Amino acid sequence: MTVSMTGFAARKGQGAGYTWAWDIRSVNGKGLDLRLRLPDWIDGLELALRAELSRALQRGNVSLSLKVARDGLADGAEGLRLNPTALAAVLSALTQIEDAAMAAGVTLGQPTGADVLGVRGVLDATSADADTAPLRAALLADLPLLLTDFQAMRAAEGAALNSVIATQLSRIADLTAQADAEATARRDSAPATLRDALAKVLANAEAVDETRLAQELALIAVKNDVTEELDRLRAHTEAARSLLTEPAQVGRKFDFLMQEFMREANTLCSKSQSLRLTRIGLDLKTVIDQMREQVQNVE
Question: What residue ranges do the domains of the chain occupy?
Fold first, then answer.
């Protein structure tokens, strides 16, 4: 069934001496765009998560965040320690800056300890344990539970999309039937209308090339005939209904089909030659555009 690219899930877990909190959310996108915010001290975690997410998801802008804390410590406080080399480099740079400022007669405010700690690299967020493999394994074992909740929400959103799109397809089918009825009614009066137009042309023409006249009449008949457009609209409607029942990802197929829907509606309007048929064509374009907005969320 239809799956939406919009979803959200959150989960907390515990293991290997740590607690953690996941947060995953997604919106529509042309392809699969993964944005991960992870502790950088867990070796190999990002690569493994990207592989798992790529297997589970096909499309969408997906954001995944993970916060990890050692049991008994505040969130994010695990393993924080000073980097002596970076600290020495920062202090040395401050000394040089102060000396240069004094030589130039410039007075600087004294930096605080928080200012120094805020310099990137002074604090390492590296785990105190050298081996993060057990934690990585625990996190990867917990990931499927998060993805189950996430996919369940995307499926629920997809079911709602399915209902909305099905209703819009019914409306398109109804408008196509109305257009067919109007085109049939117009077809009955077309010969008389064409004869009147031809009589006016002949009355104001000194000489008429009969071959050219036949060609022009044939061209007018083709331009006024909307049978093919209506047949294609019906075919596109059935194709879209079929996509709604497919288990695979159908978003890209739907995107292409929406272009075809709109092309036929535009042609119908250009060939209408009647106010009522034009109005039906405009109503079709409105419904198709509304459906296109919904389809953009289908995975």
Answer: 81-123, 156-295
